[in-house]
TrEMBL record:
The lineage of its organism: Bacteria, Pseudomonadati, Pseudomonadota, Gammaproteobacteria, Salinisphaerales. This is NAD-dependent protein deacylase. Signal peptide: none annotated. NCBIfam families: PRK00481.1-3. It comes from Salinisphaera orenii YIM 95161. Residues 1-252 form the Deacetylase sirtuin-type domain. Its cofactor is Zn(2+). It is found in: Cytoplasm. The keyword Metal-binding applies. SUPFAM superfamilies: DHS-like NAD/FAD-binding domain. The keyword Lipoprotein does not apply. InterPro entries: DHS-like_NAD/FAD-binding_dom, NAD-dep_sirtuin_deacylases, Sirtuin, Sirtuin_cat_small_dom_sf, Sirtuin_class_III, Ssirtuin_cat_dom. NAD-dependent lysine deacetylase and desuccinylase that specifically removes acetyl and succinyl groups on target proteins. Modulates the activities of several proteins which are inactive in their acylated form.
Amino acid sequence: MNELDTHARDAAVRALADARRILALTGAGISAESGIPTFREAQTGLWARFSPEDLATPEAFACDPERVWGWYRWRRTLIARGGVNAGHEALAALERHRDVRIATQNVDGLHAAAGSSDIAELHGNIWRERCSACAANTTTAVAPADEDAPLPACSRCGAPTRPDIVWFGEMLPADALARAEQGLNEADCVLVVGTSNRVYPAAALVETAIAGPATVIEVNPEATPVSTAVDVALRASASHALPALVAALDAAPARR
Ligand code: APR
């Protein structure tokens, strides 16, 4: 892992340099090097250790909000401690060269923290809460969570609030999905970073990209179901491959 194939790297740099608009589709892998577990990694993945039915469904929240909040507060603490990594920073830096929209499945808020300016959060955001009754929204500070704090209640109606996250069986936020699809239609180059491409409808965006005219570059240390169909596969970690691509663009003569 992490030895970038020079041929693949050069092809990726050419595609990025030739692009006017870039869409980056990101998943849990881009935050892995911040010490934030991914979902499906054997043993270490969250779903190898916890059951999604007990933690990431509206039914689980209705049945045991304490347990669900305990788990999200634990994840908030991991995210606050881990912070952004070189992969997040490189995607933000890519905006120096091209228009970049990020459509992310991640709820950690780290793309915004790294300075990216155009982000569609397909699965919500762990730092936002919404009322489970009246849907009033609030946002909390990025900080390790006090796990003994009382469960948050809605300031408007007093009902329990829940993390503003898309749980299994729930619809994606229409505006975020629309912006991801618009980004896909306008992109000349699509970066697919750190996702196993197993969860829909986000995985369908990748399939649409592959079927379309844009050049698709996958960044993932492991193969995924789309690895044989993308134009360029960089078998490396995000925080290794993405800075290398941006450094090559920095070194190349400007072509805007
Ligand atoms: N750099 C790049 N990719 C990495 C790295 C890394 N350092 N480490 C792991 N990966 C890759 C893994 O090889 C895997 O393909 O990231 C991918 C993570 O896959 P998942 O754990 O399935 O995460 P993701 O695709 O984001 O899951 C989608 O599923 O459970 C739901 O809502 C949750 O948003 C999540 C969705």
